[in-house]
Amino acid sequence: MKKSVFLGALTVAGLAAGAAAAGTMDDVKARGTLNCGVTTGLVGFAAPDSNGEWNGFDVAVCRAVAAAVLGDASAVEFVPTTGKTRFTALASGEIDMLARNTTWTFSRDVDLKFEFVGVNYYDGQGFMIPKELGVSSAKELDGATVCIQTGTTTELNLADFFRSNNISYEPVPIETNAEAQQQYLAGACDVYTTDASGLAATRATFENPGDHVLLPEIISKEPLGPLVRHGDNEWGDVVRWTLNALISAEELGVTSTNIDEMAAGTDNPEINRLLGTEGTLGEMLGLDAEWAMRAIKTNGNYGEIFAKNIGEDTPIGLARGLNAQWTDGGLLYSPPFR
Amino acid sequence: MTTITDPPKEQFRLSMLLNDTRYRSLTFQFIALLLLIAAFAYLGSNLITNLRAAGLNISYGFLGEPAGYDINQRPIEYTSQSTHLRASIVGIINTLIVAFLACVTATIFGVIAGVLRLSKNWIVRKLMAIYVEAFRNVPVLIWILIIFFIMTAALPSARVYLGEDPERDLFLGLFAFTNRGIVMPLPVFQPLGWAVLGVFIASVFGVIAYRRYATKLLYDTGKLLPMGWPSLAILILPTIIAFYLLGQPITLDRPDPLANRFNLQGGVTILGSLIALWFALAIYTGAFIAENVRAGIQAISKGQTEAAASLGMRPGRIMNLVILPQALRVIIPPLISNYLNITKNSSLAIAVGYMDVTGTLGGITLNQTGRAIETVLLLMLFYLLISLGISAVMNVYNKSIRLKER
């Protein structure tokens, strides 16, 4: 009894001790690897392929940061987290950053003491339902059984949506996406709800994706983005501007194929500043001049990453929509590199 | 002349703390205690400093805020606008429900399997041995998951029962077995219905009184009254008469296949997750209880069986009237710890989405509020209280059946 209390206290203290450590960038450099929290497996966003290599849209952000900081895109230790464990993992210092389609909310930013560095996917919560049920709107879901990943904002949005439309439902709380898929396909729930991108990714893995429809209602704003711990601004800046570099690169037309050419110097001063041939932006971040070049070279710019992992040519088939550059009518807007 | 001198008064010296066996153990215990206190103080201050450095504080204010999420099994009134505290209470009641059901069922399984393991029949004996070895040697989480997955895969979706012309009809027009759970009718009591229930409860007491009277008559006069059918008659007849006399005041809320295109409405649903958890905990812990029962029975001297047999008792009666009552003294103490295990293992509920207190307070509330330390401390307190409560009740029972030595 005494012993277990002691060990318990030790764990708590250990967790707290980790939280207090600042200087994440030094830790990462000293360790030589970046510990990046990702999902336990959501095809397109973060999932290991047949060789055990992690791939996906969120994974690409982790790799870009590793390339910028450590100069090696493969120096990433991927830590799979569930909706429940992700924040504890980040707060305790077990991971250096979390790129796990996590919604940026006020309370997570302010109360949980995290720092969202930006948005890498503008999403919203949707519903997936078998076609044979003939439902065309989420408002017709009165009395349905809904599978939902527990510990997420979707849980709260769902309760709000049904309450405001004055219809009832039965929640089936599920821990991981894989379990939800199994329950949904077995008919243990009528509807599966999560971020629309996640639904599309899940549906892509079904045997007959055409038998399932996504309902038109998007019931929430879900800006998904990578986050770091509060209070370590240097590290926050590194992750934020790595993400911005990927977005700016698309806007400026820098791709993984023409980057070497452009790194030799161009007429566009912003490209030059981004790629480190002009100015001292890298130095200001505490990195070398070519940090952004390495980040972009890893998997290409934002548009290339999107197209390769979740774009219209992939089984997941997501359109750019809100995630187009601001110049194309989307919401992606990186602050200038100046 | 002899003088009696006092034995030299031994002066206490500091070195005796180490060299004198009378003090040495105390010294070491004291040092160990100091070290332990220092370690705890260090960890505690470390925790507080670090929490402060991270800008966090310990506060239970979140318990009064609206929870914002829904729970699928609500034994008490609960909506998403209820507080986190109420969500925790719903979770606590759900924990107690599954713990109670599993304790009762595990005891029944355990006693039957334990007795049958000592059967003279080779097949029965071996079957029970297989049951015990298979179930107690596989982690309970695996059992919970496998039962849940088999249920969801083997049973049909609720949709087959729905519509004007369903694929399947309700069993007896009352029950539906779906992979979401078992839907069954719910009795609805009109005001007079409670009177019928009262008559039934009175009948139960009547049966007990009759059996007492019959036993007393047997001991006093040797006259044997029939036990079986009069008990049954006293139990059932007055209730049935009252039910019809009062104009059938209890109706059934039947599952309705037409009300909704997703689910059966009406009646009461026993969730698949509850069934999986309950059944898994019961058969898993039942295997442990079976071993306790077997040990208890084998602890009773064979002479007791032989003595009872020589009085002409049948084997079933020997077991029920002679062996088991004595074996209980050996069985109860380990049974307590098995009950505690069931209660604590019920925290695996989240694996199948059953909303026990670990799922509500320790799961969703923890996640939505981010108050990890506070909620986990509350959870520890809750399980501690429940476990101590079960221990206390069972210890009282243990005392009541203990061998009374005079």
Automatic annotation (TrEMBL), chain A:
Signal peptide: 1-21
Keyword hit for Signal: yes
Residue ranges occupied by any Solute-binding protein family 3/N-terminal domain in the UniProt entry: 33-262
Name of one Pfam family that matches: SBP_bac_3
GO BP annotation list: amino acid transport
Keywords from the UniProt entry: Signal, Transport
SUPFAM superfamilies membership: Periplasmic binding protein-like II
Family: Belongs to the bacterial solute-binding protein 3 family.
PANTHER family: AMINO ACID ABC TRANSPORTER PERMEASE (PTHR30085), AMINO-ACID ABC TRANSPORTER-BINDING PROTEIN YHDW-RELATED (PTHR30085:SF7)
Protein name in UniProt: L-glutamine-binding protein /L-glutamate-binding protein /L-aspartate-binding protein /L-asparagine-binding protein
TrEMBL record, chain B:
GO molecular function: transmembrane transporter activity
UniProt keyword terms in alphabetical order: Amino-acid transport, Cell membrane, Membrane, Transmembrane, Transmembrane helix, Transport
Gene3D superfamilies, alphabetized: MetI-like
Spans traversing the lipid bilayer: 23-43, 89-119, 140-162, 192-212, 224-246, 266-290, 376-397
Membrane topology listed for this record: Multi-pass membrane protein
Pfam families noted in UniProt: BPD_transp_1
An example Gene Ontology biological process: amino acid transport
Source organism per UniProt: Cribrihabitans marinus
Protein name: L-glutamine ABC transporter membrane protein /L-glutamate ABC transporter membrane protein /L-aspartate ABC transporter membrane protein /L-asparagine ABC transporter membrane protein
Main location: membrane
Location(s), subcellular: Cell inner membrane; Cell membrane
